Amino acid sequence: MPGSGGSAMFCHLRPVRRLCLQKIFPHRFLYSRSLSGAEAVNALRPFYFAVHPDFFGQHPREREINENSLKRLSVYLENLQKPGSKSLTPTQLTFYVRETDQNPSDGQEPISTAGFRAVRFTLHTRDLLSTVLDILTSCRLSTAHVQSGNTHAHGPPLKEARRLPDRPIKWDKSYYAFTGFRDPEEDLEQVSRVETTLVSWLDSNEKSAVNKLKHSLPLRQELDRLKDELLRQLQLSDIRWQRSWGIAHRCSQLHSLDRLAQQNSDTLRNAKGCTLMFTDCSGMSAGGHVMLGTMDVHHHWTKLFERLPSYFDLQRKLMFLEDQVSCLLGGLQVVYIEELQPVLTLEEYYSLLDVFYNRLLKSRIPFHPRSLRGLQMILNSDRYAPSLHELGHFNIPVLCDAASLHWFILSRAQQARERLRRKQELKVIEHELIQASTRKFSLEKLYKEPSVSSMQMVECCKRLLELSLPYLHGMHLCISHFYSVMQDGDLCIPWNWKNGETTK
Predict the structure, then answer these.
(1) Contact (CB, 8 A) for 486 and 502
(2) d(Cα 181, Cα 172) in Å, to the nearest integer?
(3) What is each CA distance from 401 to 8, 336, 365, 444, in whole angstroms?
(4) 127 partner at 20 to 30 Å CA-CA among 146, 170, 250, 424?
(5) Cβ(444)–Cβ(210) below 8 Å
(6) Could you give the CA distance from residue 345 to residue 293 in angstroms, rounded to a whole number?
């Protein structure tokens, strides 16, 4: 038969085909053992340590980008583990990677003075192991721990992979035409060449967002009801969430707090006038908010509410210490800005401020009294030189040299005042543009992620107002750094969205 003759004709090519594939995808054959989900997470620990958002407290934009990229990576890894998952859409990710002992710079990417560099790569793998290796290699992190953990796999030991030539083998286009395999370079080229545009993305994702929003509406109403009831019952100032948990998760947290309030109403009265914040650990934050750890049980929450009077005492001491520091620095106000600083407990922040105050006392920097009134500073522990933030406040390291600090503040004081004034002006413009955009597009809600600056938000809203976007009617729109439909139907668009077909 012609079919069987064809098979016989090409059967001798099978070893050649396997050899070709081995040259193109060496990891697929050398690393024959697949990873489990738990093993993949363990293998990526050096990566998570290098990009974890908590290490970017002084850099809100980079912190938010890493947090968003980690969410997208998590979805990619979950999809890889689903049965029958053979082809995934290539996913481009951007991470800011801290310089650690494992990833010394070789000059390939520019490193900022803050000690991190931007890394962009596209995932187009089909299994966990090759995905893990791609991520580690892209970030120039060691893969030795992955190799050593797979030496017992079928086939040659993984360390033999090091003896392969580093130069990638380039195959003629006719190979892909003959075998029917897809050219990976062509796939990557297409991914990087086509940029998503705002209108095309909204057109493709509007239906999904509307459905998710519709299903979330009852939960949203329940969340509002629970929050209002607890605010009234406990006489709280506000209830916040540190992370972007979904509506169902937030409702569950409020139900848990409500049950505790029914059981220990007297104890929870200690929180009167406070802001409660659901976060990763329990305590009081440097900003004076009562932190309820979402992994803690009611017993831990109860103990926290019982200790609140002692926390209030420490808070008063902290405020007195801030005033003392301000007097020594010519009226420069010490502030704690949640969005721009690491999440610190009240005890940690008091300890830092106390160290800084004692150093100032010893140095006796000669600032003229009240000469710096109206200016602001935040204290941090991961810098060794002062800086002036674009928003107008000074970043002052705890261990800063006194003489350098004196000269720096005096030389930048006028610039700081101008930036603070500009920040206030931008805030007013931003508020007006948000209201105008909300009205024009009949949005239910328009907000931004903390890492999006007022300048970026202003630019984004101005450009949005020039368009006609019926897709947005009744939607929740979040201005971010990437496109996404959140689990509850919120639309996320990048502040610098593209309008029209563009190519790189």
Answers:
(1) no
(2) 12
(3) 80, 21, 11, 50
(4) 170
(5) no
(6) 12
